[in-house]
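PROTOCOL LOG
Step 1. Enter all chains and additional molecules of the complex.
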Amino acid sequence: MGEFKVHRVRFFNYVPSGIRCVAYNNQSNRLAVSRTDGTVEIYNLSANYFQEKFFPGHESRATEALCWAEGQRLFSAGLNGEIMEYDLQALNIKYAMDAFGGPIWSMAASPSGSQLLVGCEDGSVKLFQITPDKIQFERNFDRQKSRILSLSWHPSGTHIAAGSIDYISVFDVKSGSAVHKMIVDRQYMGVSKRKCIVWGVAFLSDGTIISVDSAGKVQFWDSATGTLVKSHLIANADVQSIAVADQEDSFVVGTAEGTVFHFQLVPVTSNSSEKQWVRTKPFQHHTHDVRTVAHSPTALISGGTDTHLVFRPLMEKVQVKNYDAALRKITFPHRCLISCSKKRQLLLFQFAHHLELWRLGSTVATGKNGDTLPLSKNADHLLHLKTKGPENIICSCISPCGSWIAYSTVSRFFLYRLNYEHDNISLKRVSKMPAFLRSALQILFSEDSTKLFVASNQGALHIVQLSGGSFKHLHAFQPQSGTVEAMCLLAVSPDGNWLAASGTSAGVHVYNVKQLKLHCTVPAYNFPVTAMAIAPNTNNLVIAHSDQQVFEYSIPDKQYTDWSRTVQKQGFHHLWLQRDTPITHISFHPKRPMHILLHDAYMFCIIDKSLPLPNDKTLLYNPFPPTNESDVVRRRTAHAFKISKIYKPLLFMDLLDERTLVAVERPLDDIIAQLPPPIKKKKFGT
Amino acid sequence: MVQLRPRASRAPASAEAMVDEGQLASEEEEAEHGLLLGQPSSGAAAEPLEEDEEGDDELDDEAPEELTFASAQAEAREEEWRVRETVRRDKTLLKEKRKRREELFIEQKKRKLLPDTILEKLTTASQTNIKKSPGKVKEVNLQKKNEDCEKGNDSKKVKVQKVQSVSQNKSYLAVRLKDQDLRDSRQQAAQAFIHNSLYGPGTNRTTVNKFLSLANKRLPVKRAAVQFLNNAWGIQKKQNAKRFKRRWMVRKMKTKK
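Step 2. Run joint prediction.
Step 3. Record the structure below.
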């Protein structure tokens, strides 16, 4: 494999934003997640829990509620008082309608999917009609005294439960008047000065209302009489979220201590028909508040302030007990936030509102395997570039020569020219960018830094010629057949002839850059692409999919390579297919065409195409065997996949030159250290 | 209290006075007349008293001045007229002042507003009532907001009527900034509510350091806290020390040479 000096980089201060709401869609098995900075991400649960789409955030958007309506329409409402609809095909926001009730705290779609109910700051509950292209205000319900923090429809659509501060109201939908007002105790069996905030309500079809509040109680109410049936005290802190399964035989609640409780409807005795709600399982997968939970038919989904998204499949619901029934925790992003300029050893880090440019340190010492070499020159923070405006940065890139930086937000595209003169750096912005370049999903520079490739969210692919300090728009490839569905990835060949783009559902398109036309299309695969790269001399396109399959396609021959066919015939090792995190970056060695370097969050792997492939019986992860082993043994156990788990969690790994690697790590403790304060836990002896 | 003695000259005089000035039946006149009635009466009543008293005094033998009523009346009338004049002058002065101030305000307001041409265009555009797609309006709104940010806050806030459509050659949307302020303040209040209910007083929160160090405290071999060092302590002192060290090294090098 060779010896490499590895730059271990830990100064990328990446802190994801906390999860505020999740919404599960049963028909398409997708999960919409909204974070505190306004980003909305869509995860495809059937494609190995891959984040396939996202809508960038905005500073003024503080989303408080997210819901799916009929026909796969996604709506969100927030503290800026607006209801927004997201266009999942065009990957932009269709419209934002002001509800004129002040900040919106809660939103619920009717069981039929044609009406939308919104609870506002001024205590009003507003009903909206969902029309094919927009939503329309229908009427207001009776106005209540305090803000409506949670809403729930009765499955038949006739009644609504609204949770507010210190009380719950039940409304009749037809008349809009409040039928019952149930006062919630401020403390379980006691008195308290702090108001009781009802964080979540759920309305079951037999008329039971389940409420969770800030005193740590889960209460069952009867909506026909407006009385309290049962009260459970489950936590010392707030219980902040509740989600009921479709069959109404189980529900899940999340608390501020990070615990998620599962309640189930079980018969009182083994053969009686009477059933009662029993708290069955506690799960402690979070350290901070669990602000939102969802219940899919087979799993419990929770997310909160500690930024993890946790999927806990329920063993009794899972059909086949294989690796699918394991806990899944999504912590790290599914796309690459770092770009690298190999010539000047620069790294560009993308944050939500700014970019950072660092120069790697250098060392003159040498050592043997496993040594840590002292730095003669420290890493240098060269540039901190803040974006103008409240929008988040969607994507960014630095050119391989290090003289151009480009990034894009929803409304603007920025291109900067960098000049280096002995350790100093000066920045100059290229003004008057054309309007069609904004809202780019992916930006890539060619190897010689003369061309800029931009994939916009309308599906078009633009080629811009860069020269000196100016640019010129060369060509725009219009979207081919197939809708723009998945996130777009770009890859350019080092000789500058070929450009691969994976933005559509029709497969990966390969364009000839010199002749400006479509060359071929890699056949479509039903799992989204997570990483792509084109090898230097052979012009083989290597594609990694979210189900951990790796394909190699030869662009000049317009077919899969022999090696790829062999791998597909034999299949990957089962441990390789059971990895949790997607491959986010692929790169190649300039002098060794048989090597492919790829990495995901917990391992990096060099695939040596000349060695034999492992079958299911061999050990996949075999570190370098000790030298006292015989040569024969070493040759027998050697296989094509050389995996190393030394550096984890990895956000980025690339080959700088023949003997140097750079690995950007982000230890989980460093992320947790910058999160908001958690609830105090009292442990005996401390 | 002065005692009013009935006097023969008085009654016809009062009647004359009433008749003469009956045309000017203003409250002021009556009040003044009343005053006149009051004052001279008091004065007149006072005089004979004084006269009487003085009359008692043998030293002063002079006869009192013969003050005809006509002269007194004339004096009173002049007095009245003077007072009226001053009031009128004051009123006109105030009026003028007010007028000038109004004009000044109108001018200032005109200066603050957009030039007439743009206002005309806006009003005509709203009348035609073109319906643009909501997406475009939203993006235009964003553009306008960007322009606003770039313009800076040196000009005072402009209050323009909200216009639904967009003018043809220029792409901007005029919004009332008063609405935006209200919206921002409500959003701030809502965020403050959430923050208070989750992290405010009464909630049982602890720092991340303490939370993660709980495990360290219960180990068989106790370890230090997760964030043991406080790197943010004494930043200024450390910077000064670094600078001093650099300067000292340079000085040392110089003296060595």
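Step 4. Note key features.
Residues 483 and 504 of chain A are 6 Å apart (CA to CA).
The radius of gyration of chain A is 27 Å.
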